[in-house]
């Protein structure tokens, strides 16, 4: 997976540590690469949007939990709460309002030509900032871990979502490639 090329464990005399490409900017990170790659798959985007619109879940946190699992790291309920605390304010104050404006502009595209595209770019930039903040938390968690274990994708997503709804099961199946 692409994220593994940027973020990996390497043995040292002190044990294992997580090597991170420090030349990358905070917005250019392995979580963003993973999120954009998997979200490009229509079945994953559709499941994330259903979870976002029907259950109020943050797609960026779902993708962060999936990314952590792909690297062997488990996300517990405390981690999910920390991720929500990190993403919540930015999501409420930037991502969600811009998304709502974009949706309204799309509904009346004739009156506002080109506005939807500009708002989409602003929404993606806000999400990119949110993902960078989530990445920083997960990176610190991973650096503190002695080595990756075996994390279950479903367990990571359930730690955040709380229950296995049909859209969550669809997301899990899509991420597993089923």
Report on this structure.
With 178 residues, this protein is mainly α. It has one domain (2-18, 25-176). Helices cover 69% and strands 7% of the residues. The protein is built from eight helices and two strands; from the N terminus they run H-E-E-H-H-H-H-H-H-H. The chain has helices spanning 2-6, 30-39, 42-55, 59-70, 77-107, 115-144, 153-161, 166-176, and strands at 7-12, 15-20. The protein has a two-stranded antiparallel ribbon with strand order 1-2. A hairpin with a 2-residue loop joins strand 1 (7-12) and strand 2 (15-20). The protein is globular, with a radius of gyration of 17 Å. Mean pLDDT is 84; it is low at 1-25.
Structural class: mainly alpha
Number of strands: 2
Largest sheet: 2 strands, antiparallel
Through-space gap between termini: 17 Å
Taken together, the total number of domains comes to 1
Q: What's the order of the H and E elements?
A: HEEHHHHHHH
Gyration radius, to the nearest Å?
A: 17 Å
Shape: globular
With helices defined by DSSP (H or I, 4 residues minimum), what is the helix count?
Answer: 8
In round numbers, the mean pLDDT is 84
């Amino acid at each position: 997976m692409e994220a593994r090329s940027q973020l990996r464990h390497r043995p040292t005399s002190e044990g294992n540590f997580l090597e991170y490409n420090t030349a990358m900017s905070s917005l250019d990170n392995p979580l963003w690469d993973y999120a954009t790659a998997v979200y490009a798959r229509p079945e994953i985007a559709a499941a994330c949007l259903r979870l976002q619109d029907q259950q109020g879940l943050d797609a960026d946190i779902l993708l962060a939990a999936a990314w952590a699992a792909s690297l062997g790291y488990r996300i517990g309920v405390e981690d999910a709460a920390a991720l929500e605390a990190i993403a919540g304010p930015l999501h409420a104050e930037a991502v969600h309002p811009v998304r709502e404006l974009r949706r309204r502009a799309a509904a009346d595209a004739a009156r506002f030509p080109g506005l939807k595209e500009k708002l989409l770019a602003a929404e993606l930039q806000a999400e990119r900032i949110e993902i960078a903040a989530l990445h920083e938390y997960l990176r610190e968690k991973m650096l503190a871990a002695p080595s990756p274990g075996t994390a279950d994708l479903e367990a990571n997503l359930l730690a955040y979502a709380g229950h296995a709804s049909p859209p969550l099961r669809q997301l899990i199946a899509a991420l597993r490639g089923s």
